[in-house]
Amino acid sequence: MSKSPTSPREGSLEAPTRHPLDWQNPDFYNETPLFEELERVYDICHGCRRCVSLCDAFPTLFDLVDESDTFEVDGVARSDYWKVVDECFLCDLCYQVKCPYVPPHEWNIDFPHLMLRAKAIQFGKGERKLSHKLISNTTLNGKIASLPVLNQVINAANKSPAMRKAAAKMLDIHPAAELPDFHRATLRKRLSNHQPRSIQTTVAGPTRGRAALFATCYCNFNEPGIGEDLVAVFEHNGIPVRLTEKESCCGMPKLEQGDLKTVQKYKEKNIPQLVKLIDEGWDIVAAVPSCVLMFKQELPLMFPADEDVLKVKQHIFDPFEYLLHRHKAELFRTDFHQPLGTVAWHVPCHQRVQNIGPKTKQILSLVPGTEINAIERCSGHDGTYGVRNNSYAKSQKIARPVISRAEKMQADYLVSDCPMAATQIADGLELKHAETNPLSLLRKAYGI
Question: pLDDT value at position 387?
């Protein structure tokens, strides 16, 4: 018996599609249609509940419904809708791996972009804390914290219980949150004299064999060793690497705050430089999945008619995605000198939603004497969410299943392509080895 044409299907058999974000339309910031859409989507989510294990946004919603007088969304005060918004950190997993009602399904659910719209309205009303604006300004923070004298003072303050209590009050940073060091010798300083090797390059799939590294704020200021490892691994494989001329933040920290105009400002600084490099024959790589995702997905959805944005989308790669294209063309070197044993590999959310598959696992599995065990659960960090006072405990709770799985594996290494996720997980483990980034591990296997 065929279903009535008016009956909605349970789920969708088609591949999900993503509609552009209509953020420059004045109606985007109108609270009346926002609340109507929040009520519609919350009601569908309440009836489904598949996403309850992803983050705290959905348990928050379902608790509000279950504790209401009607046990339905109509019993939830609209002022409480914001509690759900505040728990969403835009990992995108609900859209990509859980929700059966994403487009082209007729219910047209895009929960992350609905949350982003709500955050943009909050930001426009001035309801975002000044402290959140400050800690999401990663480029400025990195420049200040890498200055002589200030660098030592800030790193010491991050480890001082008294200073961390002050930071909890002034910057809304939880005293127990693990904070990264800032380096005076930034990645840009370390590679200032680096010259890419002049060799004959070979096309492999969409890759052209020359890579320009978008350093990212985190790899430049906080973990420059990851960038150095990327250069070493790529050039060992005959891929010349250079830095981009300069760069601003990719925009992801500001996107998560709903500050879309600053995202546009960063885009206008970054895209012309990246397009120039692409036109000169360089591919773009970045060692932080969130930054790659920003150029692959979020900017194209914000600026769908911008040809330069779309060009960057086609030419930016996750490092292991890039290396696997080279491997398929028999251009990847397998002259490994050291087995890695058992590796617990945490798969970052912002890498999963790129839909590139387990490229990191596939490359590391080529190392003899190596077993890669994937953990596909959120680490709960997401940059600012993992360090703020009100969300730190929830972040740790989300990370607990990941830490538990890694402990049961008794792994020699715990790695994550997201350095912030790696820090959060490794902080809860007793590991035999210090390496927590797969690029560092690959370099170690090569013995270079």
Answer: 80
Tokens of 331: 């251009």
pLDDT for 13: 64
DSSP state for residue 351 in the 8-state scheme? H
- Closest to 256 in 3D by CA, of 31, 91, 109, 34: 91
pLDDT given at position 12: 59
Distance of CA 46 to the CA centre of its chain: 27
Longest pairwise C-alpha distance within the chain = 76
pLDDT(45) > 90: yes
Tokens of 385: 């969410």
**Per-residue pLDDT for 311 more than 90?**
yes
pLDDT of 5 > 50? The answer is no
131 Cα distance to chain centroid: 21
Contact call for residues 121 and 159 (beta carbons, < 8 A) = no
CA distance 260 to 247: 18
Map residue 281 onto helix, strand or coil. Answer: coil
Residue pair 442/345 in contact by the 8 Å Cβ criterion: no
**Cα–Cα distance between 222 and 216 in angstroms, integer?**
10
Q: Which residue has the tokens 């830095």?
A: 243
Average pLDDT over residues 200-214: 93
Q: How far apart are CA 8 and CA 69, in angstroms?
A: 28
Query: DSSP for 78-139?
Result: GGGHHHHHHH-----HIIIII-TT-TTSTT---HHHHHHHHHHHHHHTT-S-HHHHHHT-HH
